[in-house]
User: Which sequence fits this backbone?
């Protein structure tokens, strides 16, 4: 995050490329360049934007605002301009936060050709009648939109999609924490043997996910679960936002995992505003994709301002977020439906060494897990179903399943087994 | 209501006709006369009842009770009688309320030939041993049952049925408020262009709805929504009683509209006792008909007594009831299901002028309404569904739908469109 | 219970036979003997165990522990032994409860050949280094497993199964109360005319129900409802444990009946541990069988120890348990679905003497029951459904159904009628 913070990112351009190169030093990445003007559903890929310099000087030549001081000073996608303006001509191009006079806001104008500067309200109020020189040395020209993907092949083609946006400039929680934790997670997963295939997509928000969807439509049927991730480092509680359907497997896993973390963690309903779940969960795709953040977009004071810097991050929160993500992925990967091969009455577990020999006292947790698994494994109930109904820890149930497979008392259901064979 | 209050109404007779004539001066009305003896399902239309005079006099010729003082003094449908009776012969024919000694109760005997007087308990207790002269100068003879209908044709034949009973004599909340507000509502609707056709039925309770159902069975399939209305002027909270199914569209609209009024407003479950929902929601019809009252029948002290007069009415309550009714009708009329014509990802609203140009700050309520409508319009979710899920105001969503239709981004679902074409 | 308390029961042997003989003096019983070695699903019927004597003596010939003092002193199914042992050789065979130093625990070793003694912790702590003589004069030999059944034929073959275990020795709440109340209930039922057929099974826990299921598999389709009963005499609240499905008719009846008893009564979810519901609700059978106890297994301090004696029983609790059981059976027996023969509007109840003659005042409870029954009897709603929805007492609804049948206004639904005809 420290390396990425100073880069002036936007939805296209060299800032995005520099960001992807930094990620690529941690995990294998395939980058795609999509030409400006490419039609992607109702949108088209915009001109590529690159910026060299941007400042405002007063008539005395003193620099009032300079991009070099903070990437937020320039409204993202500002068109080139070099002009001398009176204060009243300049003011419509200035953005500040009166209620937070020391913070610089984050503003963009991707699709309406415009230019602007963002500054603290104190800076704005200090401006006097004068003739100001304004320079924005930017390019808005045919080029490309760039995104990166890290695919980690599992035993099956069933995919878990992790999506994070990479278009924000010097903003820490939104979006450096998403980039950093997705990268860390991909590095972890790459070392494990998994059933699912994992696809991490690092792309600009909105137009990036729209472009990715347009170019990957044929493979969306493989997406079994997905998460949009970001805003994972602040001190707020973990927040899982449900998919559009609200009852996808990922939604149930999200709820189960968050219930195991601190009590403030909470699940919220889907809404069509937020990050790239807006596109992934549009009605034409309706993917089983949830979202994990801590405090959601717009709900913390520092959001989309220069105050979203390293000071609002918390090491413990980042680490908890990573653990939550890893647990969600582990449960999705391990979930399976079993069939009890001895469904009439309980099998005699004692003779297989799976039950205590002396009766009369209560059995232990593992024995309860065995009984739950046997009782519910009629081919209709997955480990997740059983964990939800029984309250028994998912991992303990998974261990019980392993023991019962070894004893030849359950087998994976035909559906799950066949899916694996096909692959 | 002031004009209707003195009329001695019952389930048949000139009181009903006078009432319908008064309504007819406000709205167009088609009146039906159904002959006594007509078979209507398990019932038959009773003889027509008309009353000229009714009194009790003591041996000194002093009038003890007189119909001219209050229409409640006579048990409705009392058979003619002229007799001299001792006190003990008279007493079985007298009805009073010991616990409310100043109120006259409302009593009826429609289907068992009987006669009786209702009086305050103070009047009854003042009676001494004497020879009383009793006169009831009534007719119980072949005639007709009368009801009135006001039909307001909409763009479709889909009907919204509003039903109110008109058989109670001088009782204000039950039933003059129902008659008055149904009339006011019909007058409002008549001036609007509506999708639905509205049918207001003014009929005597029970036998009136049974007769109406028997004569309109073939057109019940057009009834999409319905409300029984009455008891709308007291100071109690608005009370919506669900239809027999409990999950009809009208039930969901009722719940949504009441949630927007004062916090005391409440929805209650269906029960097979009350007003004409008993017949409209009988299992052979099971119409999607709810009921709107303020305090329901039997739940306020003055119910079915002379104390149900103008003093228990409240102007603000009457006005709120009318607004609630009008809002329910408006939502039923406006509800429609749309199909997003650009279901893959969001359409680019900005280029159509439907989204703010500068990004970074939160969008407004109307933009949220647009996003919700687009996201949910897969042909399965009506405006009502979307309003329930999103919490966005129904009318704002309807405005968003209009904007998206204008932008060619959604269209009414085929089902809705075809229904309109057929008509 | 007083007669049965001293008998040394186990899962096979003469203790079981003596118990069944005692029951047989109260109700007709058919006993089955199933030979050792018989395969029953994944299990086999074990050798029959009989015990003549068991004691430990010290080197001075003083008796330390003797089966004659308490049947719990011997670990059930102990293999024969006669040996002289040092204290350290003896200790692994001794079971006690350090936290309850005056209680003897209940321990078993049915399927691993072993022997052991159970004693109070005070007895155990008093043992000194010595040479102890140990005698267990038991047989573990080919024989039989014994269980008893009392079948009470009803008008139909639809069965209500009541299952109680009979394998525990001198333990009062678990299992003498189950045996006693099942017996009392069978005696009551035998005197009544019932629609359902009742089958009371008295069998050893686990292996008994497994054996019974193996031998009755073909008739399980007749089981419409079932209850495992036991632990019915302690001062804890009535506890209904739902069947595996959780929504069986028996589960709804259990909830309704318990709601009518003291407020502490509660329903708990199914879990695959407990008594013979483990087998009856295994996924291969999944029978609609719930369980009625007061405090469930393992949840009271005296459970499976010598402290589970007559002192923890309460006469009022036993009597309440019996009433709850009888009510559950009565509702299951009486439940039926009716069809309203006059489904369009209400029938005119007044002319049939079923409704008060004078209108205006509220009808009574029975009239409400009539209206609910008529309104809901569309062939889809049973008395139980109607009682749940309306809150009207089940028995009052049943009386209303009888009155409406007599008036030819409803009839039993075809399904119910045909089931009866077939029989």
Assistant:
């Amino acid at each position: 995050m420290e390396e990425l913070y100073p880069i002036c990112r936007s939805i296209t351009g060299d800032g995005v490329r520099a960001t992807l190169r930094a990620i690529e030093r941690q995990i294998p990445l395939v980058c795609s360049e999509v030409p400006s003007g490419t039609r992607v559903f109702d949108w088209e890929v915009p001109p590529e934007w690159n910026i060299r310099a941007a400042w405002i000087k007063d008539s005395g030549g003193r620099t009032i605002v300079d991009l070099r001081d903070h990437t937020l000073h320039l409204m993202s996608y500002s068109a080139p301009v070099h002009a001398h303006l009176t204060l009243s001509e300049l003011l419509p191009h200035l953005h500040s936060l009166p209620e937070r006079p020391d913070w610089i806001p984050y503003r963009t104008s991707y699709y309406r050709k415009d230019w602007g500067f963002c500054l603290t309200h104190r800076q704005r109020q200090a401006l006097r009648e004068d003739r100001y020189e304004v320079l924005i040395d930017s390019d808005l020209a045919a080029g490309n939109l760039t995104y990166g993907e890290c695919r980690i092949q599992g035993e099956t083609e069933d995919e878990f999609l992790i999506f994070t946006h990479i278009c924000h400039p010097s903003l820490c929680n939104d979006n450096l924490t998403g980039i950093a934790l997705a990268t860390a997670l991909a590095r972890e997963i790459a070392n494990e043997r998994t059933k699912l295939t994992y696809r991490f997509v690092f792309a600009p928000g909105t137009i990036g996910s729209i472009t990715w969807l347009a170019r990957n439509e044929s493979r969306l049927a493989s997406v079994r679960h997905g998460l949009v991730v970001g805003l994972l480092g602040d001190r707020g509680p973990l927040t899982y936002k449900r998919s559009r359907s609200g009852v996808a497997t990922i939604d149930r896993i999200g709820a189960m995992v968050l219930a195991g973390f601190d009590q403030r963690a909470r699940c919220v309903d889907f809404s069509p505003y937020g990050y790239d779940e807006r596109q992934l969960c549009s009605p034409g795709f309706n993917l089983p994709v949830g979202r994990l953040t801590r405090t959601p977009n717009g709900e913390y004071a520092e959001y989309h301002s220069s105050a979203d810097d390293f000071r609002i991050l918390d090491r413990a929160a980042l680490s908890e977020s990573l653990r939550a993500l890893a647990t969600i992925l582990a449960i999705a990967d391990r979930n399976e439906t079993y069939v009890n091969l001895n469904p009439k009455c309980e099998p005699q577990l004692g003779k297989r060494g799976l039950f205590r020999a002396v009766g009369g006292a209560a059995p232990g947790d593992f024995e309860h897990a065995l009984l739950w698994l046997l009782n519910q494994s009629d081919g209709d109930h997955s480990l997740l179903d059983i964990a939800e109904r029984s309250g028994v820890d998912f991992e303990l149930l998974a261990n019980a399943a392993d023991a019962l497979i070894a004893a030849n008392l359950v087998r994976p259901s035909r559906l799950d087994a066949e899916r694996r064979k096909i692959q």
Notes: Chain C touches chain A through 38 residues (CB under 8 Å).
